[in-house]
Amino acid sequence: MTKLEAKNIVKYFKHDSHRLKALGGVNLQIEDGEFVCLVGPSGCGKSTFLRIVAGLETPDEGEIFFDGKPVTSTGPERIIVFQEGALFPWLKVQDNVEFGLKMAGIPKEERAQISKRYLDMMQLTKFADSYTYQLSTGMKQRVAIARALVMDPDVLLMDEPFAALDAQTRDLLLVEMQLIWEKTKKTILFVTHNVTEATVLGTKVAVFSNRPSTIKKVINIDYKRPRLVEDQNLFPLQQEILSELRPEVKKN
Amino acid sequence: MKKPSLVKQIIFYIAIVVIWQLVAMSSIWPNNLFPSPYEVAEDLVYTASDGSLFFGIGTSLLRLLIGLTIAIVGGMLLGILMARIETVNQTIGSLVLGLQSIPSVAWVPLAILWFGLTDGGIIFVTAVSSMFAITISTYTGVKTINPHYIEAARNMGAKGTQLATYVLIPAAFPHLISGFKQGWAFAWRGVIGAELLFSFLGLGFLLNVGRQLNDISQVFAIMLVIMMIGIVIDGIIFKRIENKVMSRWGLR
């Protein structure tokens, strides 16, 4: 069943007086439960595309369909995880995780029950009463993921969530992310500039071209999990993606 | 406060009192224009013992509290609306800048005509003289919120007053605190100024009585009290809140 469909998405960036065509007609179809990684040269608009799917920006042309219905605004069935987490520094970890539930008017006890499950899943139980400034970058991203999962969204939209992490923390989270995906069966859209990350995570990798970007190629990855970063068998796939990407980066 | 700076301050104030006493004893100026610290202290004890000092302080602080509360509520509301709705900013925003430039005592004639010589008039002056400083800092505070906070909150279903209460105000709080601090300083000037001119109870009234009776020690004494209240509120109350907020928000 098709969960998300992007039809001919066009988006201009406004730079002072002139307009720059960032997305030049992106078409993408995502089935329920797929883990789709979006890779592309920097500045190609892949993050903008994700924001359009989240309903935080509107496309200049084209439409996003969620369960067959056009997306007109942001909504908790499509939750975004930002690169820096965008956690609220005035709230404790647990209150951060429960934020969306509170907005939905769910009573305190019920919120605590739900959040406990995800705090456990992300190994954050010890930090429930901490403030975010007391956490490492990796921990913050765990909180951000827990805060998103608590909303029980149909689609998880992740905007380079591991880009600011050190290699060890990232490798650990790459494995955990696969387990979360298998456990929760969410549809995930994951923006990254890291090809290895894309091949480790994705059931599909969509390669963006340079501006005005379209999706140049979609590569399916059918390989056992959990996949590890150092797995040599993923190497040919990474080379294939890189050979698609390299000419695009040069055009920049 | 660090120990060495406290020691320096104590030495400094003792030196001031000693020099003051010496100048008073030297009779450069006649005693009815320049009282000695002893006479001022005597006057303080006298006004304290008959209760008029505490009644004056209480009256002024109550007016300050009511006026400042009105200013904080009104100022924050106006500031948030200006920051979130461009039309409000373009219209009322320009008026706020103009109103902010009116000195607090310039509101007094209007207040007397509208409210008569009442508490209401003084509270009005207090509120208007501090409200617009709070409006402007709220506006700046909300405008400089990390946009990802607002996007994440909207994405998780927060909107309208929910967004304002749970995200905009706490996120802007470091700015709001400095606005409240500025607002309090304006309000304090407003209360004392208005009381002087209304001549209707409070510290400003006591100051005016001192002038009318040619009682220079009372004038000195009341001015000292006004200054001391300023030091306590600014240096102790606001400083504490500020330190707490700054460390919580990870700004220090």
From TrEMBL, chain A:
InterPro entries: AAA+_ATPase, ABC_transporter-like_ATP-bd, ABC_transporter_ATP-bind, P-loop_NTPase. GO terms for molecular function: ATP binding; ATP hydrolysis activity. The keyword Acetylation does not apply. PROSITE patterns: ABC_TRANSPORTER_2. It holds the Pfam family ABC_tran. Signal peptide: none annotated. Residues 4-235 form the ABC transporter domain. Keywords: ATP-binding, Nucleotide-binding, Transport. PANTHER family: ALIPHATIC SULFONATES IMPORT ATP-BINDING PROTEIN SSUB, TAURINE IMPORT ATP-BINDING PROTEIN-RELATED. This is ABC transporter related protein. It comes from Nitrosarchaeum koreense MY1.
